[in-house]
Every structure is written in C-alpha cells, then in structure tokens.
Write a structure and sequence with these properties.
By secondary structure, the chain is of the alpha+beta class. It is 36% helix and 26% strand. The longest helix is centred in the N-terminal third of the chain and has 31 residues.
Length: 186
C-alpha cells in the first residue's frame, strides 16, 4: 500500500541497524580444491600399461621366433640337424626344414631309413644311427659335407650288429643352408 500523496512518510530516511547488531556474515564457502582429473590419470596409466604389454608381446614373439627357427647357419650344422631329424627322430616334417624342397637327390638316405625300419620290424631290434665328425668341402654350387655313419642294432640291451658307412651330403645356400643330396661313398 502506498502512503498518501504529500505525506512525509516517504521522505523519512530508512533506519539502519547498527553493524554490531547485525547477524554475522555468512562464512565464505570453502575454496574448492582443484580436482585432479581422475580420468586423465587413469588414461595415462592405462596407456603406459598398454605400451608395456605391446612391447612385451613383440619381445616375446621375436624370442619365440628365434628359439623355434631351424638352425641352417652352416653346412655342417644343417647336415647334423637333418640326420637327427630324419634318421634318429624319424620326423619327416622336421627333416624337410633342412632339405631342398624339390630338386634334391635324397633317395640313398631314404633307402637307408627304409632298411633300418625293415630290420627293426623283421628282427625285433632297435637300430640306432650315429655319426662322427662332419667335414665340409667347398665346391662350385655349394659345399659337400662328409661323415661316417655308424648303424648299430641291439635287442634287450645287447648289441647285435654294427657297421660303418661313409656318406657325403651336398648342401646349398638357399635361405640358409639345405641338404640337397646324399650319397653313400663306400
């Protein structure tokens, strides 16, 4: 409601409460602590962990590849690995890693393995093949590695027979050394 016109009420200055009687001022809000962005910290940690895992996977792959790759570093090494895979372990798949894929002349060594398997079946014995030092000789298209194979049979722990044969293996360098030929010398 408005005071009547010409009234002195509207011109009276407003009364103010003395400052000591005023209610204490409201406390200022506590300063807000700047929040560390939790998401950023988690993202950085997750990124570091992911990089460590990826690096570990790469290192693991390289070490696994080196450990499982066939050793074809030298002619004598490849002949030793081939003989072990083909005549001792009788693992054709492993032996193929050390031999030429198509052009090889390995019929003589195949014949020796067939003979070994037939003797085992016919005479009920265990036939073992060992070899001596491997000697390499360079020739035009690769190298020849010669060795003496010792073929022995045993039954019940007793040696039944043993013979020695000189062999020569032809090896060539194709993505590492490979056995491409085998011939009985004597």
């Amino acid at each position: 409601m408005q005071p009547p016109a010409g009234s002195q009420v509207s011109r009276v200055p407003a009364q103010r409460t003395p400052p000591e009687q005023l209610a204490p001022p409201a406390p200022a809000p506590a300063p807000v602590r700047p929040r560390r962005p939790l998401r950023t910290v988690l993202a950085v940690v997750a990124g570091v962990v992911a990089l460590l895992c990826a690096g570990g996977a790469v290192v693991g792959f390289v070490l696994y590849d080196r450990a499982t790759a066939p050793d074809r570093s030298a002619p004598d090494v490849v002949v030793d690995n081939y003989l072990r895979a083909y005549l001792v372990d009788r693992n054709d798949t492993k032996a193929e890693e050390f031999s030429c894929s198509s052009e090889g002349d390995l019929d003589a060594i195949r014949g020796l393995r067939v003979e070994v398997e037939q003797r085992e079946a016919k005479f009920d014995v265990v036939v073992r093949v060992n070899w001596g030092p491997l000697t390499g000789i360079k020739n035009g298209d690769g190298e020849s590695v010669s060795t003496t194979l010792t073929i022995s049979s045993s039954a019940n722990g007793q040696t039944r027979s043993s013979r020695r044969e000189d062999w020569e293996f032809r090896v060539v360098e194709r993505d590492g050394w490979r056995v491409c030929g085998a011939n009985k010398i004597s």
